[in-house]
Design goal:
This protein is α/β, with parallel strands linked by helices. The chain has one domain: Metallo-dependent phosphatases (Purple Acid Phosphatase, chain A, domain 2), CATH 3.60.21. It is built from 5 helices and 15 strands. It has a 6-stranded mixed β-sheet, covered by helices on one side. Strands 5-4-1-14-15 form a 5-stranded mixed β-sheet, covered by helices on one side. It has a two-stranded antiparallel sheet with strand order 2-3. α4 runs parallel beside α5. The radius of gyration is 17 Å and the shape is globular. Pfam families: Metallophos. Keywords: Hydrolase, Iron, Metal-binding.
């Protein structure tokens, strides 16, 4: 569904990896995930007052419960902008669609941009894979995008980010993804979650972006599973009319990160 944006520039907020539970008391390593999401959202609402689109790229839930998705929708309802969700490895796409069917649309046109949301989740597995149906969806969406610039979103990382333990649970057929994208130079950026840390690099003219989790953070450059004491955060993105992408990460510094390594973790 197209959305008008008279100013041209599309202002996006990216939230990812909230890991909410059915219970409001649900936590990871002692960190209450609803509380951390609440702090991140409050900060984003203060700092991004003119948001046109909210993108949420998976692991919105930890237990794939109806209650957790309803909570995520309620906690992010303050944005006066349409939202789009896609599933991660902890999500259930059918449950997401049951709770918020209007938010799981794969293609959204807004201003001079087309946003494509891909499902890389593999039932019962932590790694990602793009099924042929998803690759076909992407090919069609890009082929029919006309003069629009394109942003492609997914959950699993399609490149090595320098964390050895994360590499095996990334997107295992990234070559197939890039084969499609390389045929369509109007794709300006790839955006994902899953890695619980910031990433901003280039692959030729393609911007590669990952965003911190709204809950616990993974330590960059780690060989084995390791969390950091960094604050939860979000990414703001300015999709410009000429196809350039301006972006940055903000962290909820007013949220006290107190991890309990004796409690259940990731």
């Amino acid at each position: 569904m197209p959305h008008s944006n008279p100013a041209g520039t599309v202002n996006v907020v990216h939230l990812t990896d909230a890991h909410l539970f059915a219970s409001p008391e649900g936590s990871m390593l002692g960190l209450n995930t609803r509380d951390s999401l609440r702090h991140v959202v409050r900060q984003a609402l203060r700092e991004q007052s003119d948001t046109h689109l909210l993108l949420c790229t998976g692991d919105l839930s930890q237990d794939a419960s109806v209650a957790s998705y309803a909570a995520f929708e309620q906690l992010t309802a303050g944005f006066a902008a349409p939202a789009r969700w896609l599933p991660g490895n902890h999500d259930e796409a059918q449950v997401m669609a049951q709770v918020a069917p209007e938010l799981v649309q794969p293609v959204t046109d807004i201003g001079p941009w087309r946003i494509v949301m891909l499902d890389t989740a593999v039932p019962g597995a932590a790694h990602g894979w793009l099924q042929d149906t998803q690759l076909s969806l992407l090919e069609t969406a890009l082929r029919t995008s006309g003069e629009r610039h394109c942003l492609v979103c997914l959950h699993h990382q399609p490149v090595d980010i320098g964390c050895a333990w994360i590499a095996p649970i990334g997107l295992r057929n990234a070559d197939a993804l890039f084969a499609v994208i390389d045929r369509h130079p109007q794709v300006r950026a790839l955006l994902w979650g899953h890695v619980h840390q910031e990433w901003d690099q280039w692959r030729g003219d393609l911007r590669l972006l990952a965003t911190p989790s709204t809950c616990i953070q993974f330590a960059p450059g780690s060989e084995d599973f390791e969390v950091s004491q960094q604050h939860p955060g979000y990414r703001w993105i300015r999709l410009q009319t000429d196809g350039t992408v301006d972006t940055g990460v903000e962290r909820a510094l007013d949220f006290e990160v107190r991890l309990d390594f004796d409690s259940p973790g990731y």
